[in-house]
Specification:
This protein is of the alpha+beta class. Helix content is 49%, strand content 8%. The mean pLDDT is 93.
Length: 375
C-alpha cells in the first residue's frame, strides 16, 4: 500500500515537472509539442534532455520529414544520432524551450562553430528567441564567422543590435571576404570579427553610400558640369566630374560628398574641388535655389566641413561670374526619375546572387533606390 502511494506520488511529481517544462514553450506551438510528447515516453523525455529537438520534431521546418528522427528516438538511440537524423546541431541542446518561436532554420554546425558558439549563448530566456533567429539569419545571409560575431554582440549589448539593419551588415560582411569583387572594392573599412556593432554599422553605411554614388552616376564622366575649370586669385577650381573624383575628394576632405550622387543625377547641383598650389583647400557645391534659375554657391567648406576663409568665398564668386550664367541648363529632374546605372548594379550584386543561388525579393535584379535605402 505504502509503496503504491509512493509510486503514485512520484508519477504525479514527474507529471508536474513535465507540465512545467511544456508550459515554457511558445504558446502558439505548445499544443503541437504536447501532442507529440504524448506519443511515447522517450519523446516526452526530450523536454528535459533536448528541448530544441522536441520542438524541431513537433514543429518541423518546411520540407523536413521528422518521421525517421522520431523512429530513432523511440528506438532509444543516442541524442547525437537523433540530432543528426533531424539535421539539428547538438549545440542547440543548451538552449531553453523559450528560445523557439518558430520552425528552427538550418544552423551552422562545423567543429569550429560548435566550439565557439558555446561562449556566446544567451542567458536570458527572453533574449533567446531573438538571438536564435538573428544567428540563423546572419549565417544564411553572410557566413559562419559573421554568425558567431553577431551571437557575441547580441549577448554583449542587446540594445545595440537592430534586426532591421542586419541585411546591410550581412551583405557588407560577406563582401568583405570576397576580394575579387566590385562590391569589395567599394568597401573602405572591411568587416573583422573583433569589431563592435557601432563601428560595423558605420562602416556598412559608408559602403552603402558608396554603392548609391556609383549606381546613381554610373561609370561615365559627367559631361555637363555647368561651369568651366578656372584659376582666380591663386585658387584652382577643378571639376569633380566622375564617381572616382567625388569619392577621392570626400575621403581627402573628410566630408559627406559621396551622398550627393542622387542630387547630381537629378541635375540639382555640381561639385568642385578648390585647390591652391596643388593642395586641396575646400570643396564647393554649386546649385540653384527654389526660385533662382541661375547657379550659385550653395556650400564652400574646408577639410572636415570647416568654415572657408572670406577671401576664398570672394575668389569663388569671381570665378562664378566669369561664366555666362544665362546659357547654363539647370533644368532639374523630378526626384526619383533619374535612371540608375543597371550595369553597375549588376556588377555589385551578381557575385552574391550566384554564391547564395538566389535573388532575394529585397535585392532585386532591377536597380532600385528603395531597395538600397531599405537595407
Amino acid at each position: 500500500m505504502t509503496s503504491s502511494l509512493l509510486a503514485s506520488r512520484r508519477d504525479a511529481e514527474r507529471t508536474d515537472v513535465f507540465e512545467r517544462r511544456l508550459r515554457r514553450y511558445h504558446p502558439r506551438f505548445r499544443g503541437a509539442v504536447y501532442t507529440l510528447a504524448m506519443r511515447h515516453s522517450r519523446i516526452a523525455d526530450l523536454a528535459a534532455s533536448f528541448p530544441a529537438l522536441l520542438f524541431a520534431l513537433a514543429v518541423p521546418r518546411p520540407a523536413f520529414d521528422p518521421a525517421p528522427a522520431l523512429a530513432c528516438v523511440i528506438d532509444g538511440l543516442g541524442l547525437a544520432e537523433v540530432a543528426a537524423a533531424a539535421d539539428l546541431p547538438l549545440w542547440l541542446r543548451r538552449l531553453p524551450p523559450e528560445a523557439f518561436a518558430g520552425p528552427i532554420a538550418r544552423l551552422p554546425d562545423s567543429e569550429f562553430f560548435r566550439r565557439q558558439i558555446a561562449n556566446h549563448l544567451p542567458r536570458s530566456p527572453k533574449l533567446a528567441p531573438i538571438w536564435l533567429q538573428v544567428v540563423a539569419d546572419v549565417a544564411s545571409l553572410a557566413h559562419e564567422p559573421a554568425a558567431l560575431w553577431i551571437a557575441r554582440e547580441l549577448v554583449r549589448e542587446p540594445r545595440g543590435v537592430t534586426p532591421a539593419r542586419l541585411r546591410l551588415i550581412c551583405l557588407w560582411s560577406w563582401f568583405s571576404t570576397q576580394r575579387a569583387t566590385f562590391g569589395r572594392e567599394l568597401i573602405t573599412q572591411p568587416w573583422t570579427p573583433d569589431m563592435r556593432m557601432g563601428t560595423a554599422l558605420a562602416a556598412a553605411d559608408d559602403w552603402r553610400v558608396g554603392i548609391a554614388l556609383h549606381v546613381s552616376l554610373g561609370r561615365e564622366v559627367i559631361a555637363d558640369m555647368w561651369l568651366r575649370a578656372g584659376h582666380v586669385a591663386g585658387y584652382d577650381f577643378l571639376p569633380l566630374n566622375s564617381v572616382s573624383a567625388i569619392a577621392e575628394e570626400a575621403d581627402a576632405m573628410r566630408n559627406c560628398l559621396k551622398t550627393y550622387g542622387y542630387n547630381v543625377a537629378h541635375n540639382r547641383s555640381r561639385l568642385w574641388s578648390v585647390r591652391r598650389n596643388g593642395e586641396r583647400v575646400a570643396t564647393l557645391r554649386v546649385g540653384c535655389g527654389p526660385r533662382d534659375p541661375f547657379p550659385s554657391i550653395v556650400e564652400l567648406e574646408g577639410a572636415g566641413n570647416t568654415e572657408a576663409p572670406r577671401e576664398l568665398w570672394w575668389a569663388a564668386q569671381q570665378w562664378l561670374q566669369t561664366h555666362d550664367l544665362l546659357q547654363i541648363n539647370t533644368g532639374q529632374r523630378r526626384w526619383g526619375t533619374a535612371p540608375l546605372d543597371r550595369a553597375t548594379w549588376l556588377s555589385v550584386w551578381r557575385p552574391y546572387w550566384i554564391a547564395k543561388r538566389r535573388i532575394p525579393d529585397w535585392l532585386t535584379i532591377a536597380p532600385s533606390r528603395s531597395a538600397l535605402q531599405a537595407l
